[in-house]
TrEMBL record, chain A:
Native source species: Bosea thiooxidans
UniProt-listed SUPFAM superfamilies: Periplasmic binding protein-like I
Superkingdom to which the source organism belongs: Bacteria
Pfam families reported in the protein's UniProt record: Peripla_BP_5
Protein's recorded name: Urea transport system substrate-binding protein
TrEMBL record, chain B:
NCBIfam families hit by this protein: urea_trans_UrtB
Pfam families for this protein: BPD_transp_2
Signal peptide span: 1-26
Protein name: Amino acid/amide ABC transporter membrane protein 1, HAAT family
Family, as annotated: Belongs to the binding-protein-dependent transport system permease family. LivHM subfamily.
Topology of this chain in the membrane: Multi-pass membrane protein
Coiled-coil ranges per UniProt: none
Source species of the chain: Bosea thiooxidans
Cellular component terms (Gene Ontology): plasma membrane
Amino acid sequence: MNSNRREFLGTALAGATFLGASRLPAAAQQETIKVGILHSLSGTMAISETTLKDVMLMLIEEQNKKGGLLGKKLEAVVVDPASNWPLFAEKARELITKDKVAATFGCWTSVSRKSVLPVFKELNNILFYPVQYEGEESERNVFYTGAAPNQQAIPAVDYLAKEEKVERWVLAGTDYVYPRTTNKILEAYLKSKGVKPEDILINYTPFGHSDWQTIVSDIKKFGSAGKKTAVVSTINGDANVPFYKELGNQGIKATDIPVVAFSVGEEELAGIDTKPLVGHLAAWNYFQSIKTPENEAFIKQWQAFTKNPKRVTNDPMEAHVVGFNMWVKAVEKVKSTDPDKVIDALPGIEAPNLTGGISKMLPNHHITKPVFIGEIKDDGQFDVVWKTDGLVPGDAWSKELDGSKDLVGDWVEKKCGNFNVKTGKCGAA
Amino acid sequence: MSFLHRLKHALVILVALVAASVASIAQTTDEAFKRLAADSYSDTSRAIEMLVASAHPNAAQIVEALGDGRLLAGPSDVVVKTTAGGFVDARTGQALGAAPDGLKPVRLNNAVRRAVQAALGGLGLLNPDPAKRIAAAEAVFKSRDAGLLPVVEAAIGRETDPPALKALRQAQAAILIARPDAQPLDRLAAVEVLYERGDQDALATLRALPGDATPALREAQAKAIAAIEGRLRLWAIVQNLWYGLSLGSVLLLAAIGLAITFGVMGVINMAHGEMVMLGAYTTFVVQELIRANAPGLFDWSLAIALPAAFIVAGAVGIAIERGVIRFLYGRPLETLLATWGISLILQQAVRTAFGPTNREVGAPAFMSGAFELGGLAITYNRLWIIVFAALVFAALLAILKLTPMGLQMRAVTQNRRMASAMGIRTGRIDALTFGLGSGVAGLAGVALSQIDNVSPNLGQSYIIDSFMVVVFGGVGNLWGTLVGAMTLGVANKLLEPYAGAVLGKIALLVCIILFIQKRPRGLFALKGRAVEA
């Protein structure tokens, strides 16, 4: 008995040594390229950002199946900044100095991006930022794969004015930088189109606001002025759910007062009964329901990866897919992961997006994107009712605001993020 | 030419004429069906108009199916999917065994939906059911489709049901007032009808008066608008009070468990919000089980979830008390840190078990929608939450005042050593009290799942408000919690229309800070020896 066990142990050990031996030298030989993933996996933002971590892991696994990059395997380094803005900067520093990542994919909120910005500049590394944001920024070390305001907000307003004949506007948002800047841009844009100030109502609510009774009844009141009214919502994340519930309960239908939202995607709708919301709108650069071979393959791959046949996809995920493929192409082009070389190579790189077009990285570090307006369906998906003819190039600096309309970001010729075309100098002043 | 020959000739012409008129109906419907299959919103809208104009016998059924997304169209066939799941050929009305291949549902956008509503309004005015007629008249009122005026007027002539007649007259008024070619007197009468209706929709219709109006009409319009606005302003105050009451009831629900654990026991329980969250997740699990096993019971899901949530949250509460807090009595700072740690652990545990995304908790039928009371729109979910909060409050008060356990709880909190000397097992009472407070938080979770997101962060958003209510109302006093919650709710909602949601909340916090400076023990301070203990 005793000897038997020892024998067995011996065999097992030998087996283990053999396995280990066959693997170890390979690992030692094969240096990996590390890719940082900087998304909150706990705290308030976990609801949105966990998905992005998963999609990055899937992309990296896929790339490794194709043979890696420059003959090396990619290795994901996942850190959890826990929805804590200063921690984002610490974790970014850790990724770059300790783990020596070649590039980082991460951040969701603008404040987290602003928090890591000095770190990426100081340590000269690359950040891919996948979420729609307020614009007014173009940094050498950051590549913005989400939508700038002219790729989401402005086309949405145009759609409402043209197709729904909207004349009165409620700009409702959560009280932080993205809604405030976007609403400032939209207000200037609407006024330039001849909308009177009394036909615009701007309203801000705190994060996680859940009692929408007063605001919804205000909107109802504002909408009873005899002109077609719409709500442009920059309300963040899951505060939308009680907002929509209140709209449904107070009987505001999309045919009366449509709501177009910039932060409501398939993920947000997954936690809500969408029947009362049918017809309300969202503007994005990607919808899961868009039928292209690329998208169908992606959805299949994602659902297999997450082992959940009902798992939905959304816009920031697509932004990561496009950003990751662009980074891979740039690295292959310069045959190096050196941040300086990759940063210089990225503008001009093209990668297919999932909706049938080819997105291109622009000199201002934003990308070209198609814009879609989708209507909420009763199954929580969107039905595309309108789209732009081609791809819209992202403007780093809004043309609607006085302070920024003369600025352009150009990291290819001018080597400057805020070049003033009027004065011909680099710098905002 | 023989007579016979002439007759034959005439017959041929007659047949040709009849055939032509039949053919023209068939042609318009054909054209409409072709447009339905074109997958273009403007074609679909046009097709709806053509169908209504064609007087096709199935028009109402087709348009209704289109509005529900049950209309399938292809190059050769248009098929209605019935609500029972069968298929009907739209053209002939014959039942089909299965839908032909290659058909796609006709898509809708808001413009198409409006066209459907307007068409159903016109078609539904002749429905035998008065409720349907009222709904149809309401649809006409909103669409103000001038083409429907003859239908509306015909319907008014036939109408016998007074509420339906009123709705029809309002629909007629809405059309007339916007029509420059209508009789001036009719338009003046229309203003009067709208004034009597007196709600926001009437206001919108009045304001949409075209620029051609005569001075007399303008004057009447201005007067009616001013009168309606005055009336609505009064209602707005009532409405704000109601919203305040509703917010107060939510605050009361969230805080009342804390009034026990913090107020009565003096434990600073930072994990209180997580008990609320556990209650909400219990509701989710109960609903999932009901959906999977007994869908017929869905309307009872909340009632079933109540005891389950109480037990789950209460059991977790007792476990926390026995496992951690009992070692920390009399050390508030350590209790605060430990319970805060527990709250993080619970949040992450739920996140791992259920995923980080929100979970959908459905609303039973009796909690959806709203009803009008005068100028006040009251949503059912808020109404039931107010009722529920009142019931929970009454039950808790009864437990504390009337039951032996309540007596022992009060005895232990007032003088622990004396109670112990009288033979009360203080440790057991501590655990039960904490369990009761946590269980009540679980009940609050069931209610909050109806109005807020069921996510791991649910509790966090209520913990600060809960402490605010308990401290403001006076620690250790349930009535204080009630008054505190209602005061904060009403004050918040009265401030919100003027200051906005963000500034309103800040103003309220400043007021509370000033109040606590003046009365550190809150609204209803406990007096006597217990305070010193």
